[in-house]
Specification:
2 domains; SBP; Extracellular solute-binding protein; transport; D-Maltodextrin-Binding Protein, domain 2; signal; 16 strands
Length: 454
């Protein structure tokens, strides 16, 4: 019996100890870690000095580089500290496909907030996967018109712009030594003169520069490269070569026209169209070699540094992370109409299955505020979607946005509207450049749309 009493006393003491221990660790029980996965998950308890009962939980899913995810995590922690709303961040290694988005939403285990390419927002909204963004929240409604118009459908706005990412030209300075002066060519005729010295025009150009006697490095087979399957990159490439340009009344739109007073920017525009002369590349198609969609740095940046690729068209966010000697980035502001570059953006969306809509709007408002976007720019050179940043001219920020995308530019929304039917042609144009489509098919696809100049 004494042994039994001792055993009972010991059991009771252990039970009491466990009960007390659980009281000291109540914080750890409030937040259940996510199930193990291949995703990178940030799941830190908040530091906010608030009652545990006031904490609510959001889940945000993004697809960012590791260093950008660290920056978002820091901003998220500040939001948690200030509001007491706990937010779990999930960084996926790959972009989700439409089927994966659908499966998550149908089974109601999707994130409350998702960050995606702005061009995807409209498709998700039409499928009923998103909640509309109320203008009363002020989230994103200080972004340029060309950007906001991509997010509107059926009288509602379905996303909040978070970042702008223009395409830039990256080039090897050592390879091009003696071929260029201070700036790169502005049209295809000038490009031919520096890239093809064997031509009569190229030889004359080198003589004019006084470099005919200088031993030039041989040009590689690949003059231009871009990520295969990236339509915006290909679009930006032919824009930069001066082979796709905007015009009004069959006259190329120049920089002076872009900032002309009294010209209103609206989605329909007034006689504004696009024109192209891509067929001029027919004899040079072998020099346009895209990188594979899953190409590694060895297949892209190492080739640029070694001079085996002369020029690459890449997103600005990729370029600022990778460029070092002997490579250089051409700022979009150094290229003027009718040539130019293109830009994409990313936006936050709220899933229709979210049970925390008010908290989701509050988180998006915070992350898209001017102050937070400035931190992103100062730390990682991530371009903000807030137009006030460009009006205030933070540091050199206006150098990295093409003319047609700046807030004060006229007709930006109209050009985006006129570009919509061309996206189908871009696919055919890329196939043509690879030799997989005929010139007749290229022109037929171009003439298919009534909104395009002929």
């Amino acid at each position: 019996m004494p042994n039994l009493k001792k055993l009972l006393v010991a059991v009771i003491m252990i039970f009491v100890s466990l009960l007390l221990l659980s009281q000291f660790h109540i914080d750890d029980q409030l937040f259940v870690p996510s199930q193990p996965s291949t995703n990178e998950v940030a799941n830190r308890p908040p530091k906010a000095k608030k009652s545990p009962e006031t904490w609510k939980q959001l889940r945000v899913q993004v697809n960012l580089s590791p260093i950008s995810f660290i920056q978002l995590n820091q901003a998220n922690q500040t939001f948690i500290d200030e509001t007491g709303i706990y937010v779990e961040l999930v960084n996926t290694t790959d972009k989700l496909t439409d089927a994966e988005w659908f499966n998550q939403l149908v089974q109601e285990y999707s994130a409350d907030i998702m960050l995606s390419d702005s061009v995807s927002v409209m498709g998700f909204a039409k499928k009923g996967w998103l909640l509309p963004i109320e203008q009363s929240s002020n989230a994103g409604f200080s972004s340029p018109a060309w950007l906001m118009n991509q997010l509107k459908w059926n009288g509602y706005t379905w996303g909040v712009p978070a970042q702008i990412d223009p395409y830039v030209l990256v080039w090897n300075k050592e390879l091009m030594a003696g071929r260029t002066k201070e700036s790169l060519p502005s049209n295809w005729e000038e490009w031919k003169r520096i890239l093809d010295p064997s031509s009569q025009e190229g030889a004359s150009a080198l003589l004019e520069r006084g470099t005919a006697a200088v031993e030039l490095r041989a040009m590689p087979q690949a003059w231009f490269a871009w990520h295969d399957g990236d339509k915006e990159a290909f679009l930006s490439l032919i824009r930069r070569l001066g082979l796709l340009w905007p015009e009004v009344n069959q006259a190329p739109l120049m920089r002076a026209d872009w900032y002309a007073k009294g010209v209103a920017d609206n989605a329909q525009g007034s006689g504004l169209k696009w024109n192209q002369q891509l067929a001029q590349l027919e004899s040079y198609r072998a020099h346009f070699i895209p990188w594979g969609e899953k190409a590694s740095k060895t297949d892209t940046w190492d080739l640029l540094r070694a001079g085996r690729v002369a020029f690459g068209i890449v997103p600005y966010s990729e370029a600022v992370a990778e460029v070092s000697e002997p490579l250089a980035i051409e700022a979009p502001a150094d290229v003027h109409l009718p040539a130019g570059q293109w830009a994409t953006s990313r936006s936050y969306m709220i899933a229709s299955s979210s049970q925390h809509e008010a908290e989701a709007r509050q988180w998006i408002d915070y992350m898209t505020s001017l102050a937070v976007q400035r931190e992103w720019y100062d730390t990682l050179s991530v371009l903000p979607a807030h137009e006030q940043a460009y009006i205030d001219r933070w540091r050199d920020i206006r150098r990295w946005l093409p003319d047609m995308f700046l807030p004060q530019a006229n007709q930006g929304a109209a050009l985006f509207h006129a570009m919509e039917p061309i996206y189908g042609w871009i696919g055919t144009a890329e196939l043509w450049l690879k030799g997989a489509a005929t010139t007749e098919q290229l022109q037929k696809e171009w003439n298919h749309s009534s909104t395009i100049s002929r």
